[in-house]
Amino acid sequence: MEKIASLCKRRGFVFQSSEIYGGLSSCWDYGPLGIELKRNITEAWWRDMITSREDMVGLDSSILMHPRVWEASGHVAGFTDPLVDCKQCKQRFRADQLSGERCPECGGELTESRNFNLMFKTFMGPVEDTASVVYMRPETAQGIFVNFQNVLNSSRQKIPFGIGQIGKSFRNEITPGNFLFRTREFEQMEIEFFVKPGEDERWHAYWKAERFAWYQKYGVNPARLRLREHGSDELAHYAKGCADVEYEFPFGWSELEGIANRGDFDLKQHAQFSGKDLSFFDEEARERFVPYVIEPSAGVGRPLLAFLVDAYDEDVVQDETRVVLRLDPRLAPVKAAVFPLMRKDGQPEKAMAIRDQLKRHFAVAYDQAGAIGRRYRRQDEIGTPFSITVDHETMQNDTVTVRERDSMQQVRMPVDRLVDELRARVTVGRAGVIAPAL
Ligand code: ATP
After folding, report:
1. How many other CB atoms sit within 10 Å of the CB of residue 341?
2. Residue of 302, 304, 305, 307 to test ligand 1 pocket, by largest number of atoms within 8 Å of CB
3. Please, are residues 289 and 279 in contact by the beta-carbon 8 Å criterion?
4. Is the N end or the C end of the chain the one with fewer CB atoms within 10 Å?
5. Separation of 183 CA from ligand 1 center, angstroms?
6. What is the enclosing helix (H) or strand (E) of 210?
7. Is 218 helix (H, G, I), strand (E, B) or coil?
């Protein structure tokens, strides 16, 4: 993890928030390469889960919502973690994460556990009275539930269908840490998939398989992925069943995504608290019901960290250690780098012209500094899948060498084939995932 965190800082993937002021604990900023990687992950998710499917639509709801939302959802009363303090070293812990009765750091005595609400509160309007308390949403899901009827009325969707959303969420975590794994501000990629009661278990099984396969599709080593079913003692208050996609991080197996069967809890609660009808009328069967909901809920930071950890590799090339990020080319922040072999004979100008041509399609870098081997290493370290070199021959027949990051093999190729060859390898896209017939 230290190697990853140091690479992230050195090459501009992730910086500590407000670092020049000493940093703000558990908040992180994505640098120039990090934001490209993050966008590639969220775009892959959006494309695979929403735009390539017939039974999904997207949404972008606001972070601040009516305070009654969080009463209806159960968050005001129940979104708490049990907090204990060590009387000796004053450290804080989540009681449910401790194995013994005493402080895991110093062995000191612990206080009784008390429930601590994880929602951040703030005030709407200029007067800080309780009437204007609003919460920073702790999940994006509720924005979807309260818009269920709006989406139903304005789109041509019928049950079964889903609404997906990517956005920020906030939790005042007691013990944040492990770099991007547990932060107080984070992004989520969530789906609420609405189904007919009775069909929920089959759809739950479908989404578990679908989401588990997604990480493998983007190259995560299957040996470090598992799907873990929750025990009945672990289930959240709303859940009929839940399974987590877990990754084996250097700090142990941990959750990337939870896939829950929320039953009809949320829509029923919001119908009751708002007084609005949130049921669905099935025209064909001539029956009305409150849909059940299957929720695949992923973070962005945790998958991003898993992709980085999984891609990180060191091998030996010509007696030198090479750090290489074996990221899936579709996720890699920079798709290709263009180098002139020599800084003369028109090679830099030619290389820059190729860069400009490719830049219209992909994120591309140009580098003319230092020996060619060093330039390859700099790109390997940030996961750039292809390096294109302009040399003497280029100036004669308009061909370049293209070197592939993992195999380090080089092929010669006409310049006018570059866009098509790269596009086939570095862009996200596939035919829609066809939901199996129920
Ligand atoms: P944990 O048990 O680790 O606290 P959770 O079960 O409370 O997580 P969910 O409520 O299921 O998490 O949230 C869905 C997803 O949102 C998680 O799988 C994770 O990827 C992401 N997520 C939740 N909390 C955080 C956080 N504090 N920092 C980063 N990502 C988070």
Report:
1. 20
2. 302
3. yes
4. C
5. 9
6. helix 200-217
7. coil
Give Cα separations from 376 to 8, 336, 382, 402 (angstroms): 18, 11, 10, 11
Cα–Cα distance between 422 and 337 in angstroms, integer? 12
Q: DSSP of 275-290, one letter per residue?
A: -----EEETTTTEEEP
pLDDT at 394: 97
| 160 upstream amide cis, omega within 30 of 0 | yes
pLDDT along the chain (438 residues), means of 10: 95 97 95 98 97 97 97 94 91 87 91 91 81 92 98 94 98 91 97 97 97 95 96 84 97 97 97 97 95 98 98 92 95 97 96 98 96 96 97 97 94 94 76 32
Distance CA 255, CA 414 (A): 46
Q: Where are the beta strands (DSSP E) in 266-409?
A: 280-282, 287-289, 292-299, 312-317, 320-325, 336-340, 364-366, 386-390, 399-404
* Helix (H), strand (E) at residue 80: strand 80-85
Q: Which residues line ligand 1 (CB under 6 A)?
A: 171, 173, 182-183, 186, 188, 255-258, 297-299, 301-302
Q: Are 388 and 338 in contact (CB under 8 A)?
A: yes
- pLDDT recorded at residue 237: 77
Burial of 101 (0-12, 13-18, 19+ CB in 10 A): exposed
CA angle in degrees (0–180, nearest 5) for 239-292-287: 155
pTM: 0.93
